[in-house]
Amino acid sequence: MTANPFERHGLAHLSASQLNLYRASPALWVVEYLLKVRGSVGVAAHCGTSVEAGVAAGLLDPAMAVEDCTAIAQKRYRELTLLSGDARRDEKGAEIPGMVGHALEALRPYGVPSATQQRIEVRLDDVAVPVIGFKDFSFDAHGLDVDLKTSARLPSQMSQEHRVQGAIYFSASGNREQRFCYATKAKGTVYRLEEPHEALAQARRIALAMSRLLALSADAAEIAGLLVPDYSQFRWSAETRAAGRDLYGI
Amino acid sequence: MPLNIGSSGEAANYLKFNAKSGRLAINDAEGDQIEIANLTAIFDLERIVTGWLRFREGQAPERLLDHPNGDSAPRPEGEGFKRGFVLQVYSRNALGGVREMSGNSLHLCNAVNALYADWEAGRDEHRGQVPVVVLDSVQPMKDRYGTNYRPVFRITKWVERPADLVEVVAVESNVQAPGTRTAAQPSGQKPVAPPSQSQPQADPLMSSEF
């Protein structure tokens, strides 16, 4: 048996979203990453992916009209949500033009990105597997990276989760400055990750806690016996909730 | 999914429910309160915001709102924070336009939770529409704090979203999460300007903090 507690559970790497999920709901993390039961992706996530496609096109081609960038995003959204029965599909789709426009307004002054969706990988001290991720937009000329987030409401500051994500990218990119662009249908703004080392310490702390839990047993069911699910959290989907009820018995 | 919520507050234009008297009031331009006898208005439940709220006499309401993705905000440090909500309510005739209604009192939150459940049950049949809500009555609730009143809201019909409610009203936190050690000010993080195109920064590795 391997001594690597992650590998004994088939985890070759971690990600910022895994770390954030573990912190928020270890019980759901067990369902998603040890049982490999993933919930369906909601229209809000598809909206974010689609907006990013339109914004990437508009940044890589500064002459492209915002309307054309929006059309790219809307086409992507239609593709991704073709079979979605979510009642909010049209309503969410209607937010795309504003989101694309405000993101481009905020990010076009940065110039053309040197890379998009650049894969990163970083090792955290004493954590047996690497943390990987993908940076949305790299701007080598400025020595910084920008991650795009779409949201129904403009946050007044970076969330704890985004700070953890930014810290991972910060560390993996040779301590480059990390910025997060938030776009809603009505506004857009950019925040800088402050105190990245503190957020990085949080990421490491989560990964170590995860490692210690996994080291207790090679049996996911045995690990589940240490946890109690809270289904009131929005993160649980119908699929993961069903799997959770089987696993946890409640 | 029910709302994660638990004294109404005072925003620029507010609608306030006084649980002690069981009455609704709005503020006028001079800041005086005007009682609303019969309320029929659109409640924008689709955009309701929840979080931790604290109301203190003579002070602006303090809020630490839940994350837009639905994550509950951590309880802020300090006494008196309770789960609550912030909601936009609209009536041209009764309220003079859009007003903010917020609260964290038990009875008001229970009433809004019940209303929200009704809205959730009906929204699929009324896509793109918003509910018209009437204050049916107020129920006296006796507890160890004496008699307080719980409003009873009811959805009477669904209508197209009025133009005055199209624009999303920014509702933001003004209290920091506990343990946050960022440079963020209580009013939020300061946005950053784009970097200068003419003066790219030096190699960040050379200027690393390490």
Structure description:
The complex is a heterodimer of chains A (250) and B (210). Chain A is built from ten helices and six strands. By secondary structure, chain A is of the alpha/beta class. Helix content of chain A is 47%, strand content 15%. In chain A, strands 1, 2, 3, 4, 5 and 6 form a six-stranded mixed β-sheet that branches. The longest helix of chain A has 20 residues, at 196-215. With 210 residues, chain B is mainly beta. Chain B has one domain (15-165). In chain B, 8% of the residues lie in helices and 35% in strands. Chain B is globular and about 60 Å long. The termini of chain B are far apart. In chain B, 33% of the residues are buried. At the A-B interface, helix 7 and strand 6 of A face loops of B.
In short:
Chain A is an alpha/beta fold. Chain A is built from 10 helices and 6 strands.
Topology, pairings included?
The complex is a heterodimer of chains A (250) and B (210).
Chain A (H helix, E strand, L loop, with lengths): L13 E2 H9 L1 H9 L8 H18 L5 H15 L8 H5 L2 H12 L7 E8 L8 E9 L4 E7 L9 H13 L4 E7 L4 E5 L3 H20 L4 H5 L13 H11 L2
Helix pairs in contact in A: 1-2, 1-7, 1-8, 2-10, 3-4, 3-6, 4-6, 7-8
Chain B lengths: L14 E4 L4 E5 L5 E4 L3 E4 L5 E6 L7 E4 L16 E10 L5 E7 L2 H17 L6 E15 L2 E15 L50
Antiparallel strand pairs in B: 1-2, 2-3, 4-7, 4-9, 5-6, 5-7, 7-8, 9-10
Key words describing this protein structure:
heterodimer, A: 250 residues, alpha/beta, six-stranded mixed beta sheet, 10 helices, 47% helix, B: 210 residues, mainly beta, seven-stranded antiparallel beta sheet, three-stranded antiparallel beta sheet, 1 helix, globular, disordered C terminus
